[in-house]
Design brief:
alpha+beta, 62% helix
């Protein structure tokens, strides 16, 4: 029903009530006092109904100031530089990501990542911030409704009568006790949409906090996966060095025997021993980095470092295959982009809040209570009082305060738009970085495998020539050092490819679509 209709109906009812009260007064005794009293009551009811009509009109006619939100544009290329099959998409962060780590097929990694969801403290803090943001939405919504409060008091008082020339002992009244009990119903009508805009801003901020929670979860998961793969690469390097140390120990024994037989010089023994000790030191040094990675994983799953011990294991034998036609789900699935976009919406709503401060506020208040000096008569009809009426208030001079607040809100909005666009650019860069790294490292891995094979053959040939007495042991040491360095480099490249794979999944927001070979989405 339109507010004009409400006003007309209430006005008609008030007029009818006034006429009926006047007729009843004339029919009873016709006395002027009775008529005046009745007309006063009718006029009071008439004013009350007019007040309610004005309140209903104002409530219905309320409007929201400030610009309506429109998602800001962001510069997005038509395709990735490293993958021409990329396509643009619409932001849709609520798409479920699923257990993306299952593409690596590593059960111990899966077991660790499950614990992140349960025990990671950064994730728990982000979840608490989300709950806090949701309560702020409820607080803002409470401003749309009237509040009801009750009060009760017992006041003991005493006053004096007469002028100052009368002695106090003569002019003092007896002490009185006044009991009061009442209800108050204040309501500030959201005439200009200030509260509605605040609710809109709080709701967008809560949505940003939800996206922040997803960002923290994805970051913790990706960090753990990368640390885990680096640890497994160290395990492979440790095994390689242990095997090399054993081979060098056998070579040292052979060289010592040949020296004892007078076949080789003592320098060959010294070279073999130096080679063995150097490799042993390298094997020991790996323990420092491995321990640090293990400690980092323990913290990510919310456990003290002393409580976690990961048995050595090999890294994945193969990397997950990235689909050739990688879809552009970047803006759909990146929670940090969704968070930045929601903060733009929150800042936009704050502009309406600031502009509403230029206009006066309209409040309706109603009070009902009982007051008496005799507690036994406190709730009788004669002690009742009530009041109801609107209040229109607004600042007349504020030395430019509201203008500055409005300008501040606009500046905050512009800053949030720039932050949103920057987050999109950073996300694009991260995807490009990891796509390029995967493509380039794949080629480097092929070349490095060839280098490993060539250095292995060279080391074997040098050792055979040394046994035949055609070359010195220095040639053997040089060839074996090159073989070990190439093998360790190959493992380093594997570790970089694994971390780049996780980095790409993180950059895409947690995985690929199921139709393109990604892990199945969570229900």
């Amino acid at each position: 029903m339109h507010f004009t209709e409400v006003f007309i109906r209430l006005e008609s009812k008030a007029s009818a009530l006034a006429c009926r009260s006047k007729a009843e007064a004339l029919d009873s005794r016709g006395s002027a006092p009775r008529l005046a009293g009745t007309m006063t009551k009718a006029a009071g009811r008439h004013r009350l109904l007019r007040t309610l009509a004005l309140g209903a009109a104002a409530l219905t006619a309320a409007c929201n100031l400030g610009p309506d939100y429109v998602r800001p544009s962001a510069q997005v290329p038509a395709a990735y530089k490293a993958d021409a099959n990329w396509k643009p998409a619409t932001p849709q962060d609520q798409v479920p990501r699923g257990p993306w780590w299952e593409v690596f097929g590593d059960p111990p990694l899966t077991a660790l990542l499950v614990q992140v969801e349960v025990s990671n403290q950064d994730l728990a803090a982000a979840a608490a911030k989300l709950r806090e943001a949701q309560t702020l939405v409820q607080q803002a919504r409470a401003g749309l409704f009237p509040s009801l409060s009750g009060s009760a008091s017992v006041i003991r008082s005493q006053s004096t009568i007469g002028s100052g020339s009368v002695p106090v002992s003569v002019g003092r009244r007896a002490p009185e006790t006044t009991e009061n009990i009442g209800l108050s119903l204040p309501w500030e009508i959201d005439l200009w949409g200030k509260v509605a805009r605040q609710v809109e801003s709080s709701r967008a901020s809560a949505q940003a906090s939800a996206a922040d929670l997803e960002s923290v979860r994805l970051s913790a998961q990706a960090t753990l996966a990368q640390d885990y793969f680096l640890l497994r690469v160290l395990d492979a390097q440790q095994r390689l060095l242990n095997e090399t140390v054993a081979a060098y120990a056998r070579a040292l024994t052979i060289t010592q025997n040949r020296y004892a037989a007078g076949v080789v010089a003592q320098v060959d023994v010294a070279l073999a021993e130096a080679q063995l000790k150097t490799t042993q030191a390298q094997a020991i040094d790996l323990g420092v980095r491995r321990a640090q990675l293990e400690h980092a994983i323990a913290v990510l799953i919310g456990r003290p470092p002393a409580d976690l011990a990961l048995a050595p294991a090999d890294p994945p034998a193969s990397l997950p295959v990235i689909p050739a036609g990688l879809p552009s789900t970047l803006l759909e699935r990146r929670p940090d982009i969704a968070s930045a976009e929601r903060r733009v919406a929150a800042a936009n709503a704050q502009i309406g809040v600031a502009r509403a401060a230029y206009f006066p506020t309209l409040s309706l208040s109603a009070t009902l209570g009982y007051q008496s000096t005799d507690f036994s008569k406190l709730l009788s009809a004669g002690t009742r009082y009530w009041s109801v009426g609107p209040t229109l208030a607004g600042p007349l001079f504020d030395a430019g305060l509201r203008r500055a607040q409005s300008a501040q809100a606009v500046a905050a909005y512009d800053a949030s738009v720039a932050a949103y666009r920057q987050s999109v650019l950073v996300a694009l860069r991260e995807v490009e970085d990891n796509l390029s790294a995967l493509h380039i490292l794949a080629q480097e891995a092929l070349a490095q495998e060839a280098a490993v094979e060539a250095s292995r053959r060279a080391a074997q040939l040098s050792l055979n020539q040394y046994k035949a007495g055609t070359v010195s042991y220095l040639n053997v040491v040089t060839a074996q050092a090159a073989q070990l360095a190439n093998a360790r480099t190959a493992l380093d490249i594997l570790g970089r490819r694994l971390t780049a794979s996780v980095g790409l999944i993180k950059a895409l927001g947690g995985g690929w679509q199921a139709a393109q070979g990604s892990p199945a989405a969570r229900p």
